[in-house]
Amino acid sequence: MLTRHARTAALGLILAATAGCATVGRDATPAVTADLILTNARVYTVEEGQPWAEAVAIKDGKILAVGSAADLAARKGEATKIVDMGGKFVMPAFGDAHAHPIFGGMSHARCSLHAGKTVEDYQRLIKACVEKAPGNGTIFGSGWNQTFFPPKGIPNKAILDAVSKDRPLIFESDGHTLWVNSKALELAKITRDTPDPKNGTIDRDEKGEPIGALEESAMALVEPLIPAPTPADLEGAIAYTAQFFNSLGITSWHDAAVEWDKDGTSKALDAYKAVKDRGGLTVHTAMDWRWNNDLGFDQLASILKLSARAKNIGLTANGVKFFIDGVIPQQTAAMLAPYEGTDVKGATQIAPDTLTQAVAALDAKGMQSHFHAIGDAGVRQALDAVEQARKHDGVRDTRPMMSHMNVIDPADQLRFGKLGVAAIFQPLWACDEAYMRLTMERIGPKRSSYIYPANSIRKGGGLIAYGADWSVASANPLEGIEVAVTRVAPGGNLSPLNAGEAVTLEHALRAYTLNVAYVNHLETRTGSIAAGKSADLIVLDQDLFRIPVTRIHRTKVLLTLFQGRTVFGSLDGTAR
Description:
Layout: H1 4-23, E1 36-39, E2 42-44, E3 52-53, E4 55-59, E5 62-67, H2 69-72, E6 81-84, E7 89-92, E8 94-99, H3 101-109, E9 111-112, H4 119-132, E10 139-142, H5 157-161, E11 169-172, E12 177-180, H6 182-187, E13 200-204, E14 210-216, H7 231-247, E15 250-258, H8 267-277, E16 284-290, H9 299-312, E17 319-323, H10 352-364, E18 368-373, H11 376-393, E19 401-404, H12 410-413, H13 415-419, E20 422-425, H14 434-448, H15 454-459, E21 464-466, H16 477-486, H17 505-511, H18 514-519, E22 537-540, E23 557-562, E24 565-569, H19 571-574
Parallel strand pairs: 1-6, 2-7, 8-15, 9-10, 10-11, 15-16, 16-17, 17-18, 18-19, 19-20, 20-21
Antiparallel strand pairs: 1-4, 2-3, 4-5, 7-22, 11-12, 12-14, 13-14, 22-23, 23-24
Helix pairs in contact: 3-7, 7-8, 10-11
């Protein structure tokens, strides 16, 4: 039996396929001519009823017709631009089901450590930032890699102190840990006598002295030292990310944690509006409001008002993001059994009853729940909350999502399909690399066999969609696609990580296109090449179906169209 979301998706495919067929030389209005026709191409539509075509006709930013070159020649008018693609590969533009556009854009605008390959590189990059901004203010940045700090992935303040002891240095990794120097600890009054806050850890040495790493809620202790972004900073971050994503062939994203203030306003939403009004938001967007674990249910009223305001300005912000747990290397992810060699199981950051009530309340309002869950206990708690909401209110088309899910107990893998919870994986992480080896050391061999079970979820009737969690990881979908189908790092030669969890190329492409549109409630508007949908297309320099899968990551995007207009590359540059 098809699940609810499978039935919805199937109906959408039937309708789209029917519409597409009707436009290929068989409709009642053959006089309608196109603004643009891409012809003599290898067009992969991601439409089950019509997966391949030779040409696409576009009018007023939408797809007018899809079919053979001969059929679509009838759509040529006096003003139609015809582009002979010379057999190039055309497909729907990618989507990203889990991104942090503002955080990512800001991380590259501030003191970025992303280019660093060693601890010494980090010191060099930070020194340059200090010299560039003289004075005694905080230097804040992000992009450090936990694997450079063995054995537990926890950095030490001494490395930063070697750069500067006179001004606070604060650097974020993945949204779960801050690395700070002695000056930052001093100004924040963090000492050996400072207790760990609820749901947080101040990492310490054997004498109890803080070593310079703050995990989860402990990060808030130095938050007053971090310069608040200006409206121009926020707008610049969104505009930068839109352009960067367009260059990777991405024209839709799901912003997985939009910040808002306790007074019910959101500077982030204001920035989105400003960029949109200037024409710089060249992506379809869906947004989640961050659920504040320290506030009660009163915050729901503010979130609903923010969602309504977003709708009034033409944006979709109907999601709420719950952060259930932390990460495995620091043993803050919630596990069903203790970490290897310890009695530590991690902990969830939201009480089960509180989460269940919140999800039920959101479901009743037609809002989408989105869960950050990494450990198998965190995954189970989120699934339990959805199940209880379904029992209370029945099945609603709210399309709950769960992201990351580094480990999913086999008993829970089939529940995604049964409950209609979309599994949002970061495919680039599903391979044998340094961070994953840290993870496997913490959980042992048995649970390591349950890491990122994408194919098991899919075969069990669950919907999978892909998102990079940028800027924590590379946003390039082509790198993610290669790992999704090989379970090997791009260009790598190690053994596949749980090879049976690899998916086919068709499934990977769908997870980066139509399934992203589905979780964004946009599957009737984008995500595939079908008549009536937004003309969001890309042209690649290689045919993904005619090259070895180990070369997919080398593929380049030549052209990105968003609503029929070029947002990256050049039409003339892609023509034969």
